[in-house]
Amino acid sequence: MIRWLAVTALVASATFAGGSAMAADCKIDTDETDKFTKVRTVITRRNSLESFWGDSSKDRQRDIYVAAYYKDGHKALQIQLWFSNYVERMPPKYELKNALVIPKDSKLLIMMADGSIVTLHSINPVKSDARATRSSPRATVDFGATIYYPLTDELITALTSQGASKVRVHTVEEHYDFKIHEKSLTDIGDAINCLQASL
Amino acid sequence: MKQLIALSIAFSLFATNAHAGSDSCKYKKNKLDDFTGERLVKVDWVDMTGWASSTFNRTIGGRKDIEVAAESTGGRSLLKFRLKVSDAVKNQPRESDLHSALYVPAGSPLEFTMADESIIQLIVDEDVRGKSRAKYDDGWFVVTSKFTVRYPLDAELAERLLNEDSVYLRLGARSHKYDFVTDKGTIEFNINNKAQQALKKVVGCLNQAQQEATT
Lengths: 199, 215
Hints:
The structure holds 2 protein chains of 2 kinds. By secondary structure, chain A is an alpha+beta fold. Chain A has one domain (28-198). Helices cover 22% and strands 44% of the residues of chain A. In chain A, strands 1, 2, 3, 4, 5, 6, 11 and 12 form an 8-stranded antiparallel β-sheet that branches. The longest helix of chain A is centred in the N-terminal third of the chain and has 23 residues, at 2-24. The radius of gyration of chain A is 19 Å and the shape is globular. Chain A starts with a helix and ends with a helix. Mean pLDDT of chain A is 86; it is low at 1-23. In chain B, the strands form 3 sheets. A 6-stranded antiparallel β-sheet of chain B has the order 1-2-3-4-10-9, covered by helices on one side. In chain B, helix 4 (155-163) packs across helix 5. Chain A binds chain B through residues 89, 91-95, 109, 111, 117, 166, 168, 177, and chain B through 34-35, 95, 98-99, 131-133.
């Protein structure tokens, strides 16, 4: 029994060690050229900027993912937001409409390790509806969005020269602040470097 | 016996401290914004609801709960009211009824009638729609609508609310078919002693935080 447990523990630790080694590598999720337009699209693997569990509390969970994106000569930072709220009763459908609205040119503020702020502006307007599911005895309301922020050479230099500690995403009504997990401090710069290396 | 005395002393000390704590200002936030460097102040909610509403109207409709809070960002101040109102109806509300149950359009006024019968008016600058739900209860559907409405507050009006007594409060709002909004398009409250204290406390705490920030 003890031997079996030891073997299981060894296998598990080897798996986790392998996983973390892979996380440091440059991974590309998409690298394809359209057969008709010959436009190449490259997207790096997305990484959560928060811990494995995201930012969880009793009534809500949320997470933020980052990847670097390239299409037709343009580079961008891709930010994906995901929110999940637990509510007492199923909300009416009209309340699910436009749960997340991010107009074009909305700001993404990134606080770098030295306290300086790098500001990016979104290229695509986002209007995302929420989805409600019954999860007895309560209901879950989920919504999320993918936003693209164009990268200039100047922004690339600023974002790859040091780690980042916090992110603020502006929406039409408010802003969401995320504290970057200590294991993810260099994820934004790493994603951009990974994209650059693959082009 | 000694234990009992020690326990009662400890309890009375705890009660005294709790009371002192409730008199002091409670801030949800009072700090510099990491990104902009602006001072953010959020004074916590204080209940203004009269005992009659909170005692009798919980289940049968006619509920009118009101809380007050305040916030300021970079010197721009807002006075906030959080309301929970209800009405009991015989027919099951449809989703469209809930959608139009409570709406405060941008430009709607909030008016205080002051003790000297003068009026202080604040104007909301954003549309607000209540979160409305219906619950079946013994032959009735109780429709409850919750919403938070924020009114820009300048220093002069804040000073008046702090130093003068108000007696009546009414908010401009719309409701398609529920009685929590009057035919005149208002939700109205008497300002009793508890509400008066709550209002002055919140405005005073906002002032205090702003003054501390400038000194």
